Structure formats: C-alpha cells, structure tokens
C-alpha cells in the first residue's frame, strides 16, 4: 500500500492529501560510540526513506545517555509525534519511554534492539544471535584455514551494558563452546570492553597477548574492537597470522579484511533495515495498518509475540567485500584508496 | 536620602533604612557587582526566550512539567554536592553512588518484593554509609578527595555491574515508587501546597522582623518584606496555575494535570538544606571550614567531623537523585548515574554560583544551576539537531549562559568586590 | 598575687623538620598578672603560643595547668581549659561577616536555630567598647575590613568568653592610637579581674605600661623571666637583642656554643 | 626642596558598592621628603594606597605624576612609573621561598635562564642590611616565616629597585626594636637620596622621627596636609581622631552634615 | 655534626653542609613529612610487587615496554594539565581536545594524503588554538574554567563526531606516524640516548655547583651530587638494558627490542617543561599566580597572559597525547580521548603530588602518577577479572596506592609542615 507511489516530493498543498494527513515520526538512536552506524548510516538511510515518502521525521541521538534518551522522548511526545521509533540504550528506559508514548496514544516501533517487556507495536532488526553465530563460524573457518593445532582463542566482548553485546556473545559462544569442549580450540582470555571503547580494547588485548602469548584467534565483537586488536598484533608483527573478527562492515573493517589482517566482518544491510522500519512507520503515521511485519519475535521476558521484520545478517570475507559495495552501503572510493587499490582489484572490486 | 536614625544597645548610631534607601543600596550593590543568583536567573530567562522563539512547544505546559522530572536527578545530586564543594572538596563518585543506591532500591522492590517504604530507607542508608566511608578516607587518612572519589567512581561502576548481575537491567513495577518522578499531585493538593509555602514564608519573614525589632536592631523596611512575600506568591501561584491546566496530548485517553510530585520533594530539601546552612551552627561551621580551615580549627570546630558530614550529605542526596532517576526510568541499568550526570551536577552547582574552592555557595544554586542545565538539555532536544551539531551547540549555549554571569560579575572585580 | 602559676611550661622543645625553633623553653603565667613575652623577630614567640594553644604539637616538655599536667592536642583542648588566644596571623574566615566570625565555634542558639539578633547585639557592644568607629556594618564580610578593623574583631572575639588565660600575640600592631589605648586598658582590666594574661609586643612602652612580668625569648631560648619593676627599658632591649644583660639572661658561653649547630645557615641547600 | 610634587592626587573618590570610602581626597608627595599618611583604623589609608598603585580603580579624580596626568590601571602601570609599594596585607606567595618572592616579577636572568646565584646573593645582602638575623635559610618558603620576617621580606623586596616613589603601609607594625630602627633609617635614607616616600604609621614617635610632612585622613576625607615642624604630637592625634584641631582640619560643619548619609550604619540589612 | 663555616658576601654566617649533615637534614625533612614524590614512587613499587607476584608476566620485558605505550596518552595530557592545575584551574576538555587533534592528524594523513611532517604540525597548532580560546574565555571573560571546559568537553565531542563524518573510524597507515607509539628505537640508539641523558644531567649538575661556588654560595656536597648522578645512571642504564633484550612473542618471525620510541619523547617533554617551570621566569610566574594571584598581580606579573598560556600548554600537550593515542591504535574514532582518559590524566597529576588548588606541582608528577595509573590498568587487565570485579578492584587498588602516599604525608601535618 505504501510502496512506489509515495516517492514524490511533498510539495503542493493538496498534491497528496494522503501525506498531509500523515503525522510526524520521531526516532531516537542510542549513541555514537558503540558503532559508527548510529552516527552515519542509520540517520542517512532513515532520513532518505522518510523524505522519499514525504513524511516528516525527527531523528535524534541520545549520545549514550539514558537521561537524554528520556528527555528526547519527552520532547518528541510534547511536540506531537504520531509514531515513535527507538533503539533503546537499555530495556528499562526503553520501556519507560514506550509506556509514556502509549499513554499519549502514540504508535511505537523497536528498531534494531528489542525492548524487553516494552510492548512496542512492532520490531525491526537483524537477528543478533545470528550475528554472533556468523562471527563464531567465520573465526572457525579462518583458524581451520591456518591449520593451527588447538589454537588459543581470545574473546573481546562488547560493552557489558549493551544487551546486543550479550546476544552477540550468546551467538559466538554457541559456536565456540563446543569447539573448546572437544579440544579443537583452547579457551583463552575473555574480557568485556566498557563502552565499546577502542582505546581500552587496545590495552585489554595487549595484556591478553602479554599473558598468553599463544593466542591464535581473536573473536572481536565489532570492527572497532577488531581494529584495536589488529593494531596490537601489528606492533608485535603478528597481524595476518592471528585471525580477527568484526561486525558492521565499516570501511576500516573492510580495509583490514582486504589487507588480510581481519578474517571477516558481519554486514548488516542497514539500508534494508532502515527501509523496513520506515515503511512500518510511514504506514502507522498515515493511520494505516502495516502489512510488512510478517514475522514475530517472542519477548523472552513478557512472553508476548511482537510483530516483527527480521533481516538476515551476512558474513563478509575477502571474497565478498564487493557485495557490500554493490549494495551501496560503502563506496568504492572510500574503501579502495591508494593503499588498497591492488587488494581491491584482487578482490574483484571494479 | 531621607533616613531615620535610631540607636542600638551598643551605643552606636545606626540608620534605619527606608524602602527607597533599601532599594538604592541594593541597586548600588548590584552595580558594584554583588549579584548573587541574579546572573544565573538572567541566563535562565535568556535561554528560555531563545528556545521559546525557536520552538513553540518549549513553552507548553507539558514541556514545563517535563522539565522538573528531567532535572530532578541532577538537582538532587547537585544539592548534596554543594555541601562537598563548600568545603573545597569534590565528589566524583556522586553519579555512580546514585546509581548504586538506585540499584539497591530496584533490587529490593523487584527481586525481593519489598515495598517502597522499606526499600527506599535501605537505599538512603546505603547512601549515608557510602558518604561516611568517603568522608572518613578524606578526613582521617588525608587522601585528596579527588583521588578517593575517583577510586570510588571506578569501584561503584563495578558494584553497579555486579549488583545488576553483569549488565542486565531491572525494571521497577511498584506503582508508588514509579509515580515519584513521573506522576503529578492532584489539582487540590497542588494548590494547597503552593498556598502553604507562601504562608510559611510570610510567617518566617514576619517572625524574623519582630525578633530583631524587639532587640532594637535595624530591620528591613516593611515594604521590602511585603514585596518579597508578594514576589514569591506570584511566582508560585502562576506556576501552579500553569501546571494545573490540562496538558495531555490526547486528553481523551488520559488526563494529565497538577504539579509533578517531585516538585514538593525538591522544595522540601531546598528549604531543609537552606535552613541547615543558614540557620544552624552546623551550617555556619561548614562555611567556616570551607573559608579558612585553619581559622575554623582554631575556633575549636571539629573539622574532621564536618568534613565527613558533608560527604554523608552528598551521598545521601545522591541516593535520592538515584531513586528519582530509577523512578523516572522505571528501571535501573549499569549506566544509571553514569554519562554526564556527574559533570552536569557539578556544573549545576558551579553555574548557580558555588565556588570550587570552598566557602561560597547556597543550596538554591543547585536548583537554579540545575534548571539552566535542564533547560539547555530540554531545549536542545526540541531543536532536533544531529549528534555532532547538538554537542557543539549545547556546549556553546552553556558557554553563553555562563558568559551572561561572568560579564555581569566583571564589574565586581572592577570595583574591588569579590 | 603570684602564689602558684596558672599555667606553667617547662622544657618545651619544638622543631620543624631539620629546623629547631624552641629549645627547652619554660614559662610561668600567673593569675591576675600580665606577663609580657618579648623577643626579636623570629625568636619563637608565636611558635610558643601555638604550642600552648594546641596548633602545634610539642616535641617534648611539660605543660601544667592549674597544677595538673595537661596535654593539649588541639585548639579545642586549649579552649576547653579556658585558654583564649589572639593570633598574630589573625585567622578569620574571610567569607563570613563580623558577627559570624566573632561567635565562630560558640554560636548563640535558641533551640537549634542560631540566635542572630543576640549575637549581633553582643558583637556590637564588644566592638563599641574597643573604640571601633569606622566599621560600616556588623554584617560586612571580614574580607573587606581594614587591617586595624580585622585586628579589633580578632581581639573582641577572644575576650567575649569567660576564660582563665588570654594570650594576645601583638594585638596592637595594626591599631590606631585610640584603639591601642583601649586594648591596653582591656588587657589590664582582664588581669585585674584575676585572669592570666600573656601579651606579646615589640613596643617597650606598652610592655612597661601594662605588664607585671617580662619573659624574654632569644633565638628560641628563654633568656629571662623577671618582674617588670626589676628591670629597665634598656635592659629588656639588651635581653631581646643579645640574650643577656648584665647578670640576667643566658650564660655567656651558651649562645656561642650552640651557634655552629643550627643557626644562620642562610644559604644551605640552595636550589637543586 | 618641595618645588613641584612628584605625585599629586586630587579629588579622588572611591567606593565599594554602596560604601563610599574615599571622598574627594587630595595628596601631594614631594621628592626628597617623607610624607607621613596618618588616620584612624578604617580611615581609608590603605584604600588610598591601593588606588595609587592601580590595585583599585578610582571612581573619579586625577593623578598627576611628574607634572603629567596619568591613569594607573594596574600594579604594573604603577611600577612602570617608578612607584613601589609595601602593602599592609603583605601579598607574598606562600609557596615560594624568600629569594623567589623578593625577585618576583623582576627575576635576574642569564639568557632565558634564571640567575639564581645572583638573586640569592642580592637577597642575602638586602636582608642583612635590615637586621634580619633569625632567618634559617634564604630558601625557606615564606609560609614558614615569622610575622616580622615576612614583613622584612616585603620591605626588602620593595626597596631593591630603582624607583621614584616608595609607599610603605605600616611597615614596622610587626617588627622588633632593632628592625624598626633599621627600617626608619632606611626610610630616611631613601628620601635623602631624592625619592618621594609615603609612610603610613600609627606610631606618632616614628612619624615625628622621620617625616617632613603629615597628611591626616579622617573618615575618608583629607583633614589636613601640614609640615611636620608646624604641628605638635597632640594636634596630629586630634586630627586623626576628630578630623580637626584648632583652625586646621575639616570645617566643623562638614562632618556633621554628611554624617547621616553613610556612616556608622552598624547594623543595616541584617541577615535575611 | 661537624660542619665547616664559611661566609657569604652578605656578611651572614653560613654553614657548609657535609655529606653526612646533608643526609641527616634530608632524613629530618623526610621524617618531618617533606616527602616530594617519594610516596608515589613507594606506591608504584608496592603495586608492581603485588602484580608481579600475582602474574609473572607482569615483570616481563614485553610488559615493561608495553607500559610506556599504554601510558603515553595519559602522561602527555597530564603533563599539560600540571600547568593548568598549578594555576588552580581545571581543563575538563583535555581528553576530547586530544581526540580532536588526533582526528585532525588522521584526516590529513588518510583522507588528504598529507605526510606526517605536515599533518602533525597542523594538529599541534589546532591544540594551541584550542588552548588559546579556552584560556581567553577564562582569563578575559572571567568564566570559571570548570564551566568553560565543561562546555568545551561537550563541544569537542561534537566536533570529533563532525570531523569523523558522524562516527566513522579512520585508520592511519603512515608508517612513521604509526611507529611513534608502537615501535622501538634500535639498540644502538637506545644506548646512545641513555648515555647522553646521563652525561647531560651530570653536566648540568656540575655546572650549577660551579656557578654557585664562584659566588661563594653554599653548594651541595660533591658526594651528594655524585650520588644523584650515579642514581640516575643506574636507573636509566638498567632500564635500557632490560628494554634492549629480545622480547618478541615469536623471535623466530621477528625481533622486538629497544627502547620504545615514545620514551625519549616523554623524556624530552619532561626535561623541557621541568626546565621551563624551574629555571625560567615564566615558570616562576606560573607558581606565583597559582600560589597567590593577588601577590603576583601586585608584582606586575601579567596574570591574564599567564592564565591563557597554561591553557595553551595544556591543549598543546593534549594534542600530543591525541597523536600518540591515534598512533597506538592506528585509528581514530569518536571515543578517542573520551571515557576515563580525562579523569585518569587529572588523577595522574594529583596522585603524583600536584594540588588541585594551585601553586604546588611538578612535571615529573605527571610521569610518576601516570605510571601508577598505567601500572594499575596494565596489571588489572593481566588479571583478567570480569568487568564488574575489575572496576571494583581497580578502584580499591587506586585507593591503596593513594593511602601509602597519604599515610606517609600525615607526619607532615603532625609536625606542622605543609
Ligand atoms: N612551619 C615552619 N617551618 C620552618 N620554620 C618555621 C616554621 N614556623 C616558624 N618557623 C621559624 O621559626 C622561627 C620562629 O618563628 P615565630 O613565628 O615563632 O617567631 P616570632 O618570635 O613570633 O617572631 P615575630 O616577632 O616576627 O612574630 C622563625 O625563624 C621561623 O622562620
Ligand atoms: N572591598 C571593600 N568593600 C567594602 N568596604 C571596604 C572594602 N575595602 C575597605 N573597605 C572599608 O573601607 C574603609 C577603609 O579601609 P582601609 O583599609 O583603607 O583603612 P585604613 O585606613 O588602611 O585602616 P587601618 O589603619 O586599619 O589599616 C574601612 O571601613 C573598610 O571596612
Ligand atoms: O552494530 C552493533 C550494534 O547492534 C550494537 O548494539 O552496538 C555495537 C554495534 O557494533
Ligand atoms: Mg610572631
Ligand atoms: Mg590600612
């Protein structure tokens, strides 16, 4: 229903009575530190989708501050949005915000992160446990390729305060634990990185390496953490020999893959996620019943089924870096700088 | 100037001020740079106007009410910090202390099924114990408070993580508790409390006048006293009137009016601590130790005990701040009390006019400074800038608010007043 | 008069790190008398006072008060015994006003509430009796007072209380002619009321005008304790500048012997 | 002597907020002469000095230096003109040592490096000339100095430089007998070398011993400026305490008229 | 004590100390509580022993070398902060200022293809400009530095985000640049520099002795001077020897030895700023303004200019810190300079013995305090606790390190020394 014909600009007053009836949509993103996506990709794709539909949107970022998060929600509610879409910082504040919105008669969407017991009307995301699984499988593959005997694997987990980090760990541990158990791999040091802080990740990994010189593989929860580990490996001239994982398909991560320093990253097609979410929101803003949320997600806390759009994350290695570029997520110019021109050609990026 | 001359018991000639001479003197003091909280209030008005012009929702009743809930945590923590700052000390751990106390209350309510009237006291006691330990380390071992509270800042972050079992968050579902920093008083109660406040203030003012007059001491002119009482009355009653309007987005679904419950709580502590600082010998001693520790010691003031006590008050108020934060979010997570909470709280105190070097400050500073910070935060989120720009503009606006203050005070330096 | 001393110090030693400031100092303060403590700049007078009032801890020596040996660890110990001190470095709180400073640590209260009117009135009376005429307001911060006004506040503060011993460290240094006269009169009046008074001063006229006894410190040693009537103006000056005068004062060999040890090393370590 | 004044103030007004401290004050300082500035505690002497040295900005009035009208906005303006001041509130840096304080703002250097040996030597010489005998080390922090030692450091600091006017605000207040004599001698010597010297003191003996002229401030007004030889001890005391003496001083009606306006409001606003 | 008495030009008797009397005096001073950096060093040793016992890798050459790279950012920022703190001011923005300057260098290197010798100067100039603006606002407008730098703390976070296009990480691939805080000097250069440092120190010491002796001033006994030089020599040469051992994880693949490049850079700035603070009139004036601003002003010192200058130095050193952080991570992200960097840097200065109230502190404090913080961080991550525990234990260990210091200094109070 809300497909192709909405792509015009909302210029004339009566041009699309459809649009003028549409309320405003408010979107709250969590921070700019856990991943670059919240500062760059998501706002860009979301904005584009709403602009295309001619629906008013306000996107704000809570800068990792849950007080801010609530304040932004208050502001959006009092400025009269008709749909509120959030990426929670934690389920608690997320829930408080969702409840306040519902009391004011506003439709709600959980974007990327499910608010436990939040009771949002819809949920759009990638399967985060799946992300972790892909990371685990990627690492296993790279280590097998290197033919290491009983390699020691270090784990650099995400922020202890980020629920997604917990889900990622669930995913990769579900792959790695059996390997530890059967003795193919050896469990090495395992630490959380507060705030996903890359600098701290560097020190943490350096110390892991100092105390356990046999580390042969690093499960880093995202590209930033991965790059921190790679810097330390480089310093010890071990880069390339110790596979490192990542997530988010950042330019940095893709380049590290092309350079052979990083084993894989997980590409979450953020544009698709953003499009799916905006489609839902636009329908709600126009007081229509969305039809795209075909799946459901069971809220593990409340036990309720939330109507959902769940997208599949994709594992990226040197072979399919080109897919990310083809998808328009990153540009060739950004990835294939002078240093990487050769590697790009080798990887079939033209 | 026409003045009446009376005589005090000391046999020294004194001049009884008239309303005119009083205002003249006040004006001369202001011109001479003795400004009190005036510049911060000025800054607040300027900010509000800017935001009000930029976004009309800023002046809506709903937004006005939200401001109180939004600022509560920072205001409570800042009130406690005023005591710590008055001694020239710092408490970097106040933010996470509020988180820890908030976690305690949430755990007791949710995981252990306690009721609010048992859970809240335990959280407050936790705050007191924390403050005692910090104060003890500073006063008795002589470790600089920056270091002690930096260590506590780290440790409490860990305690919070451990309490929350490594990163989950805990929701509170206790109706009363969640209402504290979310719901409103009934309209009747709102008016009742406002009127009570005005009457109480008037009583105190008149009583004071009477007791000075009885001793033959100079009193403020009656006109000025009436002006003060009238001023407060207008302020409180107008605010109450606004807050008692319907402000629900969708009044059909649920009605929203009345003064937020947190307002009288803020008012209570404002009056309490203002009384303690201004009217008790304990408060006097806090100022003395902050102004000149050696002089205080020579005057026989138990400096160490005072030092410990301010940390206790600081952490106690942090506990209340934490309770309010948890109530507002109906949940606690490992970042409760983290982020910018601490810097904002110290900033609130400083912007309100409290000195980091001790000896200068009032509890009202926390409220006014907290309001400045909350207005900036609130207004900025209404503007809807993107992340980077928002940080930058917030910083700049904070600077503008502070410059109003600084420029006003520059005259002070020029005329030799401090 | 002068039966048993109210306060008696003996063998007091006090040093700061490598610097020994007081050597084996003894001093007796009698009730009803003014004891003038004199000595050159840096002789150790203020240090001695601060040892008595508990600001400094003595390294060794005994303090006897009303016949009992006491240990004074803090200023509140001293005021507990009834010892009031006006310090040379006045130690007022610049952020408090005149009344607040005068009652600091001993505020008047009604219930738990400060009784400001009473304090204001008492402060006004005390200051008026010390010839303070230029003070603009009792509610002025002491930061804005003139040197003499500060000094008067400090003196008024110390004599407001019922104490047994009052020690004044150069109380008239910053005072005008009239105010000085008032303070000297006050000092005499305190002694006449039976208190023990210790007055530190560099002004020999004042010393001879009000004191009953004179104690002279020389380079951290007590050179002599004599009755004022037994010595002349110039003898006291000799005691101050040389440590001895005729047959009173330190034995002649004493200062010389100790000299090499710790005095006048005017440029020791230098800067590293 | 006394052809044209080196420094001439006229019509100086200075207030702090509602408090008017100086009213229409005039003062002339002549080269080669010691001008004693006297007045009761709180009369405004120190305030006047701080107006001259640029610590306070005057509200109105003119300052003429060597015949030219000047505006002094900061202490460095004043020292640029050649005006050195020893303040009553000494203003030493407690965290610096004696030598460092004495050369503060005018350090001796070799290239860009501080020339510590030279400074140390010069400081030692200057202090020795002021009869300082108890200083333990020139590298002692001034925080640990006795009251008199601090005062001496401040004086020595001000007279180290080639200046045209030296103003000393109660320089001998904390000094011992010998040190006081030295400072008075120094004051006289400075004047004899052609400098203009302003000496603030409450000690009439000292005033009459060294000064050529006396200027008396009374409640912020200049009551009289007279030659020392033209007045007696008791006349000066009358000027100080009453603002007039016989036919010199403020006109009799003047003080009364202004009295109601701004004086002795000893308990105004009270505490709110 | 046997002492020789000499006479200075001033005609005042002086006592020439012997080695014995010098040591006696030193000991009396220490017993009297005048401890300098001694307690912090003691704390450092205690900590190292604890960690060394808990994890044997702590004392490995590799870990020793890592310590320098890990602490570099905090040490550089802390060095600059010392100047700011000496004036009793604070710079809350130093962390993010370092991030901004780091971003500038990374953008120029990576996005614009500049070389390090043009990019680094631009980053340094950025730091200087930032410091100038901060200092100007504090000195000329009179806004409290806490507020100015809190505003800057927010604004720079935004600038960083904007520079990084909303939050992308930028990798640096310039060999030389990345080597700065990752690679090591060759063994030859390592030894050369160590020996140079010892010889230089000896020259300065002897020169000083000579110039004092020439004026007839008392000098330190020759024995003491030799002892000092010897001490430094042993320290430097032993450290160099350790760092010149092979420490590669896999020596077969590649060799890893030599002093980390960042060490001589730290050394350079340590010497430079120590010289500036101790031997130039500028440094003297910084202490004076921090000790007693009014006295400094009366002495004709341009207080405002000094105030601006310390912020310039502060931000300049923050820029260097940022460069080192980016070099170490070979990457910059929106959190570079964020998290605990600022608190750790101020903490380093304070733990090293610098006062937050101004007037007291030395540049070496930054290095020693930075070492304490780095050792704690380094040791704690070796232990591999989980997050919560790690925070708690880090806090406690910090407290232990500070207590050693505080307890040692308590004697100071007891003997009346400050
Ligand atoms: N904390 C300290 N550390 C080192 N030396 C000190 C300290 N306090 C005082 N001194 C030294 O002790 C000596 C005695 O000082 P004190 O203040 O007692 O002298 P005083 O007799 O009161 O002199 P004045 O008449 O100048 O006030 C002085 O030489 C002084 O420098
Ligand atoms: N900053 C200020 N604010 C308000 N009043 C002030 C201030 N500074 C000084 N005064 C008042 O001005 C008057 C003059 O002070 P000043 O210090 O000049 O006196 P003085 O003549 O030097 O006295 P003294 O002999 O005691 O040193 C005093 O009454 C004082 O209280
Ligand atoms: O994409 C990831 C996001 O889902 C998580 O919440 O924060 C870290 C990011 O890398
Ligand atoms: Mg003394
Ligand atoms: Mg004066």
Automatic annotation (TrEMBL), chains B, E:
TM regions (residue ranges): 35-55, 67-87, 94-110, 116-139, 146-166, 186-204, 225-243, 258-277, 308-329, 341-359, 366-385, 391-408
Keyword DNA-binding listed: no
A GO MF term: transmembrane transporter activity
Domain of life according to the entry: Bacteria
GO cellular component labels: plasma membrane
Location in the cell: Cell membrane
InterPro entries associated with the record: ABC_transp_permease
Keyword field contains NADP: no
Entry membrane topology: Multi-pass membrane protein
Protein keywords: Cell inner membrane, Cell membrane, Membrane, Sugar transport, Transmembrane, Transmembrane helix, Transport
The protein's role, per its UniProt record: Part of the binding-protein-dependent transport system for D-xylose. Probably responsible for the translocation of the substrate across the membrane.
Protein name as catalogued: Xylose transport system permease protein XylH
Automatic annotation (TrEMBL), chains C, D:
Family matches, as InterPro entries: AAA+_ATPase (IPR003593), ABC_carbohydrate_import_ATPase (IPR050107), ABC_transporter-like_ATP-bd (IPR003439), P-loop_NTPase (IPR027417)
Entry's Gene Ontology molecular function annotations: ATP binding; ATP hydrolysis activity
SMART domains the UniProt entry points to: AAA
Signal peptide coordinates: none
Presence of keyword Transmembrane: no
Domain ABC transporter as annotated: residue spans: 7-244
SUPFAM superfamilies linked: P-loop containing nucleoside triphosphate hydrolases
Keyword ATP-binding: yes
Transmembrane segments: none
Source organism, top-level taxon: Bacteria
Any Pfam family: ABC_tran
Record's protein name: D-xylose transport system ATP-binding protein
Keywords assigned: ATP-binding, Nucleotide-binding
PANTHER family assigned: CARBOHYDRATE TRANSPORT ATP-BINDING PROTEIN MG119-RELATED, SUGAR ABC TRANSPORTER ATP-BINDING PROTEIN
């Amino acid at each position: 229903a809300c497909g192709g014909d909405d792509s015009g600009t909302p210029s004339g007053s009566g041009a699309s009575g459809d649009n003028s009836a549409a309320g405003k949509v408010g979107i709250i993103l969590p921070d700019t530190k856990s991943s670059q996506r919240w500062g760059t990709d998501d706002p860009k794709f979301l904005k584009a989708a709403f602009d295309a539909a001619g629906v008013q949107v306000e996107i704000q970022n809570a800068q990792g501050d849950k007080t801010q998060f609530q304040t932004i929600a208050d502001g959006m509610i009092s400025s009269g949005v008709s749909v509120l879409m959030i990426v929670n910082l934690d389920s608690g504040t997320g829930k408080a915000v969702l409840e306040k919105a519902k009391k004011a008669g506003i439709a709600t969407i959980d974007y990327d992160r499910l608010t436990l017991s939040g009771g949002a009307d819809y949920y759009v995301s990638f399967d985060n446990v799946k992300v972790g699984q892909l990371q685990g499988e990627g690492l296993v593959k790279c280590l097998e390729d290197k033919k290491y005997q009983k390699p020691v694997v270090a784990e650099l987990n995400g922020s202890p305060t980020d629920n997604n980090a917990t889900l990622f760990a669930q995913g990769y541990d579900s792959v790695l634990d059996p390997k530890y158990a059967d003795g193919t791999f050896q469990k090495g040091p395992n630490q959380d990185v507060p705030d996903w802080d890359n600098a701290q990740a560097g020190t943490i990994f350096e110390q892991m390496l100092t105390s356990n010189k046999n580390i042969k593989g690093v499960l880093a929860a995202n590209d930033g953490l991965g790059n921190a580990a790679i810097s330390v490996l480089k310093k010890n001239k071990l880069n390339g020999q110790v596979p490192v994982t990542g997530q988010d398909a950042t330019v940095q991560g893709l380049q590290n893959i092309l350079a052979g320093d990083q084993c894989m990253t997980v590409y979450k097609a953020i544009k698709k996620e953003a499009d799916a979410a905006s489609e839902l929101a636009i329908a709600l803003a126009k007081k229509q019943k969305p039809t795209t949320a075909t799946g459901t997600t069971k809220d593990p806390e409340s036990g309720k089924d939330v109507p959902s759009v769940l997208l599949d994350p994709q594992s990226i290695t040197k072979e399919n870096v080109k897919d990310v570029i083809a998808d328009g997520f990153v540009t060739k110019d950004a990835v294939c700088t002078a240093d990487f021109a050769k590697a790009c050609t080798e990887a079939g990026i033209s | 100037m026409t003045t009446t001359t009376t005589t005090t018991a000391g046999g020294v000639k004194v001049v009884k001020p008239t309303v005119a001479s009083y205002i003249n003197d006040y004006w001369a003091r202001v011109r001479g740079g003795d400004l009190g909280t005036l510049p911060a209030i000025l800054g607040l008005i300027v900010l509000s106007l800017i935001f009000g012009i930029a976004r009309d929702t800023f002046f809506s009743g709903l937004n006005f009410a939200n401001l109180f809930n939004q600022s509560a945590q920072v205001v409570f923590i800042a009130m406690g910090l005023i005591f710590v700052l008055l001694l020239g000390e710092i408490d970097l751990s106040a933010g996470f202390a509020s988180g820890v106390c908030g976690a305690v209350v949430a755990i007791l309510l949710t995981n252990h099924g306690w009721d609010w009237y048992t859970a809240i006291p335990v959280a407050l006691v936790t705050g007191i114990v924390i403050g005692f330990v910090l104060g003890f380390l500073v006063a008795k071992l002589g470790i600089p408070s920056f270091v002690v509270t930096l260590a506590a800042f780290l440790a409490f972050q860990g305690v919070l993580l451990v309490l929350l079992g490594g990163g989950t968050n805990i929701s509170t579902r206790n109706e009363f508790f969640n209402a504290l920093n979310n719901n409103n008083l009934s309209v009747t109660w709102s008016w009742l409390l406002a009127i009570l406040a005005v009457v109480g203030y008037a009583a105190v003012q008149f009583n004071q006048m009477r007791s000075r007059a009885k001793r033959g001491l100079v009193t403020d002119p009656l006109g000025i006293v009436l002006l003060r009482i009238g001023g407060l009355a207008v302020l409180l009653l107008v605010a109450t009137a606004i807050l008692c309007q319907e402000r629900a987005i969708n009044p059909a679904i649920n009605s929203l009016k009345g003064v937020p419950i947190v307002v009288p709580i803020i008012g209570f502590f404002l009056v309490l601590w203002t009384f303690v600082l201004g009217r008790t010998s304990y408060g006097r001693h806090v100022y003395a130790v902050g102004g000149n520790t050696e002089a205080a010691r020579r005057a026989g003031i138990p400096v160490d005990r005072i030092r410990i006590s301010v940390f206790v008050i600081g952490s106690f108020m942090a506990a209340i701040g934490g309770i309010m934060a948890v109530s507002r979010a109906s949940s606690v997570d490992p970042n409760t009390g983290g982020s910018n909470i601490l810097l904002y709280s110290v900033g609130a105190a400083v912007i309100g006019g409290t000195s980091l070097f001790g000896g200068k400050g009032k509890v009202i500073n926390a409220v006014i400074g907290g309001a400045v910070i909350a207005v900036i935060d609130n207004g900025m989120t209404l503007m809807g800038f993107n992340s980077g720009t928002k940080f930058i503009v917030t910083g700049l606006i904070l600077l503008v608010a502070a410059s109003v203050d600084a420029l006003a005070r520059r005259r002070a330096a020029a005329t030799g007043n401090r | 008069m002068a039966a048993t001393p109210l306060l008696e110090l003996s063998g007091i030693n006090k040093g700061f790190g490598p610097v020994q400031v007081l050597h084996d100092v003894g001093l007796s303060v009698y009730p009803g008398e003014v004891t003038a403590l004199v000595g050159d700049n840096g002789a150790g007078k203020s240090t001695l006072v601060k040892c008595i009032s508990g600001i400094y801890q003595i390294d060794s020596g005994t303090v006897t008060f009303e016949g009992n040996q006491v240990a004074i660890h803090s200023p509140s110990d001293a005021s507990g015994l009834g010892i009031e001190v006006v310090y040379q470095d006045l130690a007022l709180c610049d952020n408090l006003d005149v009344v607040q400073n005068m009652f600091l640590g001993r505020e008047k209260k009604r219930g738990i509430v400060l009784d400001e009117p009473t304090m204001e009135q008492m402060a006004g009376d005390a200051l008026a009796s010390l010839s303070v005429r230029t003070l603009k307001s009792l509610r002025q911060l002491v930061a804005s007072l003139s040197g003499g006004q500060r000094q008067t506040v400090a003196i008024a503060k110390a004599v407001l209380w019922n104490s047994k011993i009052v020690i004044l460290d150069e109380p008239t240094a910053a005072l005008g002619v009239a105010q000085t006269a008032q303070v000297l009169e006050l000092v005499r009046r305190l002694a006449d009321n039976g208190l023990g008074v210790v007055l530190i001063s560099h002004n020999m006229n004042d010393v001879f005008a009000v004191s009953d006894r004179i104690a002279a410190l020389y380079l951290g040693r007590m050179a002599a304790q004599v009755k004022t009537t037994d010595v002349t103006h110039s003898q006291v000056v000799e005691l101050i500048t040389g440590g001895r005068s005729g047959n009173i004062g330190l034995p002649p060999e004493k200062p010389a012997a100790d000299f090499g040890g710790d005095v006048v090393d005017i440029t020791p370590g230098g800067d590293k």
